[in-house]
Amino acid sequence: MRVEVQGIDKHFRKVHAVRELSFTVEPGRVTGFLGPNGSGKSTSMRLMLGLDKGKGQTLFDGKQLTDHKSVTRVVGAHLDAKFFHPKRTAYAHLRMLASESRISKARVNEVLQLVGLESVAKKRPGGFSLGMGQRLGLAGAILADPQVLILDEPANGLDPQSIQWMRDFLRFYASLGRTVLVSSHLLSEMQLLADDVVVIARGSLIASESMSAFLARSTGSSVKVRTNNVRGLAEALQSEGLSLSVTHGEELRIPNVTTDIVGEIAFRYSVPLLELTAETASLESVFLELTESGQEYRTGVSTPHLGGAL
Amino acid sequence: MISVLIYEWRRLWSVRSTWIMSILYLGMAALLGAVPLYFDTGAKQSWQGLYSSSGNLLCVIMLSVIAAQTFGHEYRYGLIRLTFSEFPKRERVMIAKTIMLGVYVTLMTFLGWAVLGAIGASKPSRISTDVVGFSLSGNNIPHLWQIPIFGFAYCIIAMSVTVLTRNLALGVILPLLTATLVETLISGFSTLAKGRLDWLVHILPFNNGYAWLSGSTDMHLSGLVFASWAVGFYFLATLRLHVRDA
Question: Cα separations (Å) of A181 from A33, A76, B9, B33?
């Protein structure tokens, strides 16, 4: 099911939290929703679900959510790991959520088993860890087997095994032709998980494209070379018109060039190479490059100066 | 609509506080009924007077806690977002909660009467036979049908205050304080002001509510004023719920 976000816009008094945001989330793919703190990701998700009142609309398969017969079969949302009554058991919580689609007890048990909470199903979630809360929230979201999943920071508080489980689960879910929109601050994790990215900063859209296209935006791709003749290679590269950005012991870093070109130059100038590696930009580096000016909340002291501050 | 009613029913009975408040309500009704039967040596108690114990403010407070929890828990724990994610048509949620509150108040009133009936049966010598059973004639004691209606209207105000303030405690405390303290003070000031504040006393919600319940001479007008307050609060709460971010 295709999700079309059309011009959603939201003010909180004087703060323009989301600005005419439009993007599309495609079925069969995991879409990462990225942005710095306070950029409007959670607000956007709430606007998409009709929880917050604002301008614009979100269409699920061409229709607004309220026009669908069964909402929980269309979209499952997990917006916070603590959205439960601390004294209502996990099982009772899911049974309550199962009302809309008349979901059976068997399905509730199945979902509890799927997220690994069957042993605590009859326990009150007030004592659950953040990770267990995330699992319960995810269980609620997938209960009715919805066509679209909207998850806000679902990996927060999860241990590495659980993160891997969630990644595998979401990729499997998308492989069934479902639509998955997931926000996260864990950019390395998102790079492994997402097929597409939607990036916002200060409530405005920065990018909405495939992960590969987004990474290709980086100006930071380079080639790393290690040699026992650093001077010889540096001179050879410079004589071919290439600049060297960083030198570190036996290591050179040449920006905006391919390994083929560097290898060929080294061969021509008879410089032995010990290592030749293409360094593609990480999601983190591209993200930071593009959202640097759009960061709403930033620290006042840069890292090198922290020592003095401490 | 059925699904949202099922949702509400499960929400209501899947937390311990509902059971605790229900037991407290029945216990309070039993206590208020038993005291005059077992410890008062004066005039005999009528069946109707005995049953009307369930309409005492001390009992209605217990019901108002459940009414405040109807939305109070949702706001406190963020569940309102789950609820509105499942049921984006918010007016349906409001209607379902109102219906379920009505069902709950009616159920508890009948259970209260059953408990009070058992207490009366345990002390038949103290029960007057002048007025028997579920008589509908009230003499300074409420008609029995008025008790659940009064309880329901009080609960509607408590629920509406909770929606407006998004605070469970205020939903319980504000109506209670108004009924017991604020309105008493205003009535007192009115006496001191030699009637110049009578108009204010005549429009106080709970004064009128109890005047209606006790079958005063102006009971119909009092009932209308009390109902207007309940409907007014309910209207404001529904409006606010509709336009506000979840």
Answer: 7, 11, 32, 59
- Please report the pLDDT score of residue A309 as a whole number: 44
| Chain B positions in Cβ-Cβ contact with residue A83 (cut-off 8 Å) | 77-79, 81-82
Burial zone of A160 (CB within 10 Å; 0-12 exposed, 13-18 middle, 19+ buried)? exposed
In sequence order, which residues have a C-beta less than 8 Å from that of residue A49 and are 6 or more positions away? A58, A65, A75, A77, A150, B84, B85, B88
Give the residue on B whose Cα is nearest the Cα of A69: B87
Residue pair A252/A183 in contact by the 8 Å Cβ criterion:
no
Q: How many CB atoms lie within 10 A of CB A257?
A: 17
Place of tokens 């937390």: B15
Q: What is the pLDDT of residues B13-35, one digit of tens each?
A: 999 999 999 999 999 999 988 88
pLDDT, position B134: 46
CA A177 to chain B, closest CA, distance in angstroms equals 22
Q: Can you tell me the distance from the alpha carbon of B204 to that of B183, in angstroms, rounded to the nearest whole number?
A: 7
Return the amino acid letter for B240. Answer: R
Structure-block tokens of residue A228: 């026992």
Chain A partners of B17 at a C-beta cutoff of 8 Å? 87
Q: Check: CB of residue B64 under 8 Å from CB of residue B172.
A: yes
Q: A218: which DSSP letter?
A: -
A305: tokens are 């100066």
